[in-house]
User: Fold this.
Amino acid sequence: MNIVIMGAPSCGKGIQAKLIEKKFGLEHISTGQILRDFIAKNNKESAKIKEIMSRGEFIVDSLMCKIVSLKLDEINDKGFILDGFPRTEKQTKFLLKHYSPDVVLYLHTDKDIALERCENRVVCPVCKKSYDKRLVSNLVCPDDGEILITREDDKPDVYLKRYKIFEKETKPILDLFKRYGKLEVIDNNGDIESTFNEISKILVNMR
Ligand code: AMP
Assistant:
C-alpha cells in the first residue's frame, strides 16, 4: 500500500504518518526531515537549502523529485507513506507518472488550529520527534532527555508565509487527486487519536 499524507503546515501530518508506519508496516518518508538531515551536514550546498527553508519557501521541484525517487527506489516493494511531497503541481505529475499512490489522505485542519499547533510545537534535536510543549514536562524529550527546541520555520512570521504558500501551491493539488479518485478527506480538528481512528478505518478497508 502506497500512501500520501497532506495537510496544512504543522497540522500533525508527521505524527499521523509515524502511527501509520507502525500499524501498517510502511516506510515513512518525510521530505522535510530528509532536508533537515542534509542541513545538519553543514556544507556549502546545505547552507543554500537552509536559507530557503528558514524563509519558509519551497526547494526547487527538480531536486525534490530526485530526492523522492532515490528514496522510493531504495525501499523497493515496501509500501510508503509520503509526508511533505508532493507540494506543487509539477511534483504531483511526477509522482502520478512514476509511483502512483493508492490513496491520498488530506488532513483537513482549520487555520487557527494549525497555527495553535505550530505555536506549541517543539522537537527533539536528536530523535526528531515533535511534541506539544503544553504536554511535556520541563521541555525535555521523554525518550532521550534532550532539551526540546522550536523549529526555525515555526516562528510566527515564517509560519504565516508557509501557510500562504500552502494555500496557493499545495491546496490546488487536491483537485488533481480528486479527479483520479484517490482523495480521502479526514477531519483533523480533534485529537491525535480521533484522526488516527478515521485514517485506520480507511486503510483497513484497503488491505
Ligand atoms: P515539512 O517538514 O514538511 O514542514 O517541510 C519543511 C520545509 O522543507 C518546507 O517548508 C520546505 O521549505 C521544504 N520542503 C519539504 N518538502 C518539500 C517539497 N516537497 N517541495 C519543496 N520544499 C519542500
